[in-house]
Write a structure and sequence with these properties.
Length: 252
């Protein structure tokens, strides 16, 4: 396990790492998740193995610290991720990121282009104010006090189902709520705009069961490859791991 400081109080972001050759490949999880749980089975596939691989847990999640004074905005999380990559000496990394992690990866590439050579985004948040059915919207519908201390966290754990709850219950409730609020607010420029303006290699992976991707043609026109993974919804890596692995490997 490795770590890097990301705030003035000495809080650390942690990751586990597998040795290998070539540029680092960095996996980043979504809201209320953990990188090894969502990506280790993908990274271990022969088509992807052999590369130096980092599984980073964002602040407030998994094995990383969860300081109460941290903002947990998308930009805050991107700066923490940058601290991890700086400490790891992982310039020009290939970033494979899911959901909220995809939005964080976009912000990272926008602010620290030296750290990113390629983005593979899976069902990433591209716009503020996600649909009401999204998990982040449900969390953000509570006040921070109600979510953290008034039973909101426990209610959400029951509502999201056992699989997501398995990792969400490992996240800090305050961090989870602030990150959800951050997703609702988005970034300026928006994650979509930043993604379209980037010059690195970019792929957006969409689960076929999710439905049509908003702004598909505009993304493609800007140079973003959009690929659809069959028989999969938002959690593509669990719904159809074989097809997801093939889709990721085809981009790297």
């Amino acid at each position: 396990m490795r770590k890097a400081r990301f705030d003035a109080q000495g809080s650390v972001i942690r990751w586990t790492e597998a040795p290998g050759s070539g540029p680092a490949r960095v996996y980043v999880h979504g809201l209320g998740s953990a990188s090894t749980v969502y990506h280790a089975h993908i990274a271990a596939h022969p088509d992807l193995a052999g590369r130096r691989t980092l599984f980073v847990d964002l602040p407030g999640h998994g094995i990383s610290d969860r300081p109460a004074g941290f903002g947990y905005t998308l930009e805050d999380l991107a700066r923490a991720l940058a601290a991890a990559l700086d400490e790891a000496g992982a310039e020009g990394a290939e970033i494979v990121a899911h959901s909220m992690g995809g939005a964080v990866a976009i912000a990272l590439a926008h602010h620290r282009p030296d750290l990113v050579s390629r983005l593979v985004l899976t069902e990433a948040n591209l716009d503020p104010d996600p649909p009401v059915k999204a998990g982040s919207s449900g969390i953000a519908s509570y006040t921070e006090e109600k979510f953290v201390h008034g039973g909101g966290f426990e209610k959400v754990l029951l509502r999201v189902g056992p699989d997501w709850a398995a990792t969400m219950r490992l996240a800090d409730p305050l961090a989870l709520h602030r990150a959800a609020i951050g997703l609702m607010r988005g970034t300026r420029p928006t994650m979509r705009r930043m993604l379209m303006d980037l010059t690195v290699d970019r792929t957006f992976l969409q689960g076929a069961l999710t439905g049509a991707l908003a702004g598909h043609d505009e993304l493609v026109a800007s140079g973003v490859r959009v690929e659809t993974v069959p028989d999969a919804g938002h959690n593509v890596m669990f719904d159809n791991p074989a097809a997801f692995t093939r889709a990721v490997a085809a981009q790297l």
